[in-house]
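Lab notebook page, bench 4
Experiment: in silico fold of construct C2
Operator: M.H.
Input chain length: 127 residues
Purpose: comparison with the prior construct
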Amino acid sequence: MIKGFKDFLMRGNVVDLAVAVVIGAAFSKVVDALATGFIGSIVGKIVGKPNLDSVQPGGINIGTTLTALINFVIVAAAVYFIVVVPLERISRLRRRPAEAAETPVVSEDVALLTEIRDLLASRQTGL
């Protein structure tokens, strides 16, 4: 039973998931600081205090939901434009040289000589 538990813990998926959770927790602090400290302060300067908690049309408190929704959009935009877009661009740049290296350019002379070689080889095997 202990051996099975040890095998379970040492599987790559469990370790990868644990690392992802720890990194995600640390990264969420960075994103929260960026969203509330930097972007939130910019939004606050433009439109005032970005807190809608006291909005209660018809006595229904929807302000907290609106505040959470706006904060979510701010965090999602920050993650997309500061993390996702640059990483996609870097990934595209890394793939481009590899794709170019896979398709070698053959000059017409080399292609003609290769064709002649193949024809001569097929004549000799046919004799």
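Observations: The chain has two domains: 1-50, 51-127. Residues 51-127 form one domain.
Next step: discuss at group meeting.
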